[in-house]
Design goal:
Strand content of chain B: under 5%
Low-confidence stretches of chain B: none
Strand order of the largest sheet of chain B: 1-2
Helix content of chain B: over 70%
Order of helices and strands of chain A: HHH
Transmembrane segments (chain A): 7-28, 69-87
Shape of chain A: elongated
Distance between the termini of chain B: 58 Å
Radius of gyration of chain B: 22 Å
Order of helices and strands of chain B: HHHHHHHEHHHHE
Keywords (chain A): Membrane, Transmembrane, Transmembrane helix
Radius of gyration of chain A: 16 Å
Shape of chain B: globular
Number of helices of chain A: 3
Low-confidence stretches of chain A: none
Strand content of chain A: under 5%
Number of helices of chain B: 11
Number of strands of chain A: 0
Number of domains of chain A: 1
Largest sheet of chain B: 2 strands, antiparallel
Structural class of chain A: mainly alpha
Organism (chain A): Dyella halodurans
InterPro entries (chain A): PhaG_MnhG_YufB
Protein name (chain A): Monovalent cation/H(+) antiporter subunit G
Oligomer: heterodimer
Mean pLDDT of chain B: 88
């Protein structure tokens, strides 16, 4: 059971790290603000979500696991809001539309 | 493995610090400074200094970053003019030499520290039980060095008075910031409706766990201030006029309670800020709970800047 949990953790975190990498490559390579934002959401939403999911079996208490999920949900809320604000500012004619 | 991570962290910190110094655009420099603060938070966590990390994230990166972004937008009009009058070569070389010398002196001091460094940590650990709190950082801040913490809280208040005094005579005692513009369906208004209840709980939780785990009034107060700022920025709530009685009371209450407990110590425990036997923890909690709202209001108003509108303005 322990080994199964550890394997699950490793797979989930590696997948999460892959999404972070992909998001970062997109942030650096994509041509404009809107597509770069699109790339970033992959890192925030999926990447962090998978890392949290992978860490859940390692959490020593239920309360600690719930806190990690709460952190992920708050990051989702904040990143979705900030993406909207940046996209709106870019559409209104920011420095690099 | 962890050494590789630490080295990567150090390299990133140095690169970001360099970028922040050399960036030409003020906004780019501020962006560098905020990311630098967040990375520094990670460095403190790596050093197992979670209390310092929390403070760095909340106040060093968050609050100072927000202050600097505000300053950037105020400076935008004059930025081109400021860049045109570039200081002469001699001035720049002199500035570089002085800055390098200061950095070298600090580095030398750190490197020349005896190993193990001079420390009062064993004494703190020994006397921790007498304070009633479980977190040694809180014990130092609220008991062994309570004087420093009290002065910190009072200095913030002086800072706020300094900012207010930048107001023009016409608006003295008025409302800080610009008149709110509400976009009822805007995404910011949505966030300002969803987040503050969660932030309120988190802020009070951080204060409460501060007795036994990393946390405390400064970090909790910053979270509360951030929630209020979100409400103010979204336009759902207008900043109060700084001459209002409840604002003044909220600002003064925390430091006043702190001083009161301190004076009480002179009579009961024989020293300013001394706590009588067995009452240390309740008194510490009284001070922390009194300081939390005061700090939140002080930090929010610090960020809102000097009054710019009359009291009756909408």
């Amino acid at each position: 059971m322990r080994i199964a949990a550890d394997i699950f953790t490793i797979v989930a975190i590696l997948t999460g790290a892959f999404f972070f990498l992909a998001g970062t490559v997109g942030l650096l390579r994509f041509p404009d603000t809107l597509t770069r934002l699109h790339a970033l959401t992959k890192a925030d939403n999926l990447g962090l979500g998978l890392v949290v999911l992978g860490l859940l079996p390692q959490s020593s208490s239920v309360f600690g696991g719930l806190k990690m999920i709460l952190v992920w949900l708050l990051v989702l809320l904040a990143s979705a809001t900030v993406s909207q604000l940046i996209a709106r500012a870019a559409r209104r004619g920011g420095p690099h539309p | 493995m962890s050494i590789a991570l630490h080295l990567a962290l150090i390299a990133l910190l140095l690169a970001l610090a360099f970028w922040t110094v050399v960036a030409r655009e003020t906004f780019a420099a501020v962006a560098g400074f905020v990311s630098y603060g967040l990375l520094l938070t990670l460095a403190w966590v790596a050093l197992s200094a979670v209390d310092v990390a929390l403070t760095e994230a909340a106040i060093g990166a968050g609050l100072t970053g927000a202050l600097l972004i505000g300053a950037t937008s105020r400076l935008r009009k004059t930025e081109a003019a400021a860049r045109a009058e570039r200081p002469g070569r001699a001035t720049r070389v002199l500035a570089a030499i002085v800055a390098t010398a200061v950095a070298a002196a600090i580095a030398a001091c750190v490197l020349l520290l005896p190993d193990p460094g001079p420390s009062l940590a064993p004494e703190v650990a020994q006397n921790l039980a007498s304070t009633g709190v479980g977190n040694p950082i809180t014990a130092v801040l609220m008991s062994f060095r309570a004087m420093d913490t009290m002065l910190e809280a009072i200095v913030l208040l002086f800072g706020l008075i300094g900012i207010w005094s930048l107001a023009s005579d016409r608006y003295w005692g008025g409302r800080p910031g610009l008149a709110p513009v509400v976009e009822p369906n805007g995404i910011l208004a949505y966030l300002a409706r969803v987040l503050p209840p969660i932030g309120l709980v988190v802020g009070i939780y951080i204060l409460w766990v501060g007795a036994d785990y990393p946390g405390g009034k400064f970090q909790g107060g910053t979270v509360l201030a951030a929630m209020w700022l979100l409400l103010l920025m979204s336009g759902l709530h207008d900043a109060p006029a700084v001459s209002q009685r409840w604002v003044r009371l909220a600002l003064v209450a925390g430091p006043a309670v702190f001083i009161l407990v301190g004076v009480l110590g002179v009579f009961v425990a024989g020293a300013f800020l001394g706590y009588p036997e067995g009452l240390a923890k309740p008194l510490i909690i009284v001070i922390e709970v009194a300081l939390l709202p005061s700090l939140a209001v002080t930090l929010t108003l610090l960020l809102m800047g000097p009054p710019q509108r009359s009291e009756s303005s909408p």
